[in-house]
Every structure is written in C-alpha cells, then in structure tokens.
Amino acid sequence: MSRSILTIDSKALEFNIKSLSKFSKKPVIAVVKSDAYGVGVKHIAKILEGIKEVEFFAVACVEEGLELRELGIKKPILILGGVLKGEEKAIKEYSLTPVVSHPEHLKPLEGLNVPIHVKYDTGMGRLGFLEEIIDDPRVEGVLTHLSSPAEEEFSKKQIEKFKNILKHYKNVKYVHLESSAGVIYKVPYATHIRVGLAIYGEKPLSNYPVQLTQVLSLKARLISVKRLPKGYSISYSRTYKLEKDALVGVIAFGYADGMMKSLSNRGKVYYKGKALDIIGNVTMDMTMVDLTGTDAKVGDWVEIVGPHQSFTDLAKMAGTIPYEIMCNLSRRIKREVL
Ligand SMILES: *Cc1c(COP(=O)(O)O)cnc(C)c1O
Prior knowledge:
By secondary structure, the protein is of the alpha/beta class. The protein folds into 2 domains: 10-200, TIM Barrel (Alpha-Beta Barrel); 216-337, Lyase, Ornithine Decarboxylase, Chain A, domain 1 (Beta Barrel). 23% of the residues lie in helices and 26% in strands. The protein is built from 9 helices and 18 strands. Strands 2-3-4-5-6-7-8-9 form an 8-stranded parallel barrel. Strands 1, 10, 13, 16, 17 and 18 form a 6-stranded mixed sheet that branches. Strands 11-12 form a two-stranded antiparallel ribbon. It is elongated and about 75 Å long. The mean pLDDT is 96. Bound molecules: pyridoxal-5'-phosphate. Pyridoxal-5'-phosphate (PLP) binds next to β9.
C-alpha cells in the first residue's frame, strides 16, 4: 500500500561491517544516532547486534540509548553527546556509557558507578577537553574525532596529539577516533573504529579503499502521468517550462519525504534504468519528472536510490552531504528489510 519504500539489505549491511573491520583490523562501534541515519533503528539494531564485529553501539543522546535498550539491545551503548543533569538516572537504569567531554558532564555522574569514555578536542572545535586529564577509575575509554579526514596533514596532527594524551591513560580498554572516512589512517594505537555512514554502504570519500556494497534502495510510485503541451509551466513558482510536448510524471515523494528542495530542476531519478530529470520545484509530497519516451503508467515505481544512484550521488546534485538527505527520510516511507 505504501507509496514509497526504503529497502534495507541486511546481508549488505553485514558485508560492510565485516569489510570495515577487516580493513582496519579492529572491531566496530556502530553509530546509529538519529534513528540510524534515518534508516530506522528498529529495523537494523537487532541485525547489527547479531554481527560479532559489532562490539558497541553509539548514539547521540540518552533518549536514543533508551530506545536501543527497549529494542532489546544488550551490547554496550555509548552516548556521544554527554550527560546533562537529570539524565543520570536513565544512564544507570539502562546501563548506558556516557562520553564525558566537559567538566559539567561529570557532575551528574558523581557517586554513580558507571564506565565512562573521555573525549578530547584535538582539532574538531566541537566537543572535548583540550588537555585536562580525567583521573577517575571509571574511565574505560578515550576518544577524539577527526574534523577533516580528507586532509591528510591536519588529520595526522590530530592523530599525533591524541597519541600524546593517551600516555596519561594506561589502563583504558577502548581507544577510538576513526569514523567512516577516518579508517583510511589505520591508526595503530586505536582499539575500535567508530563508523556510521559506511556501514550503510555510502562511501565517505571518492577513492575509498574499503570495499562496500549498497545497503539502501529507495523507490516511490507515480501517482500521475500525463501529456502536457510545449510551453506549459511545471510546479510552484513556474521555474520550469516545457520546451516541447512532454509526458510529465508525478512521484509521491517530496521534500517532506527527504527529496531536498535544492534538487528542483537539478536532480535525477530512474525509471527502468532510464534517467529522468526532475522538473520544476520539488513540493512537499510530490516531485515532477519528465517521462517523455517511456511507457510509464500510474502506479509504476521510480528509483530514487538504487543501482543507478546512491544517496551520495543525490547529495552531490543537491549541494549537500548524504548524511543530511538520509536523516531527513520521513516516517511515512515504508521500511522493508531483505
Ligand atoms: C557521527 C559520528 C561518527 C560517525 O561518523 P561517520 O562519518 O558516519 O562514520 C563518529 N564519531 C562521532 C563523534 C560522531 O558524531
């Protein structure tokens, strides 16, 4: 009945985890924040838990950690965004592992016997201590984050800085800093990789050395197909006018579903392998495409992401990153796990 379906290939997901782990020679902290990058955490959490290379999960906040526990996840869960006052009870009750990146994060944890990971800012300019050493027996992990993995010189400086900080942490079990793009540095002193995007099959760099398979495909149905004459204008604000008579299709997938408005008159989708131009402004629930030369009918499916195009390809056309498009995939898209 659904008008749009996101298909998740669980075998491909497993392949990518194993491939990343093998490449880096480390087990994986699977980053499933923001509803598993929009994919739908309830559809993949159990699959990930069943993969032996996944030793840890990571989410942004306590609520997301609770959600994982409610889904039956037993492996440890890292809360990347720290702990605020009032959240300590849930940390204890649901056995969540907070990342401490500010002195204020330690206060709610006073007297609480939970493992913690300490985060350093080595050049991200976001979360983390600069130099302060946290001398606390509860510290079981230390981490940092690369701000620009595509820049080798700067990344290597961050890796070096972090190595110096680690000298003060002799007994920690977990040391992690490599995100999907970061794995290219094969940091020898790190114990785990902390990856999100790549497990979903999207390459974080153009010449990415890790073999990945596409996990996600996204399709939506045509809810109208009709001939319109040359000169006719398409969609809001009339940003597109037909240069000749055309067969115009309406896909049941708009910016509310995750089709960025910046794809108006720029993006492409596919019908039976043929590229279709998006014409006119993308609207909330619908997107218009030029179907001229096809035999498309109402009810047919159009590929938005699949063998012909990834979220990364779509993001390039939209002038953004795949993360943003994925995180905006709406609830009304049906999720199907293969
Ligand atoms: C989101 C996030 C990651 C995962 O990044 P990817 O590029 O998706 O692999 C790792 N570490 C931190 C701190 C993050 O916020």
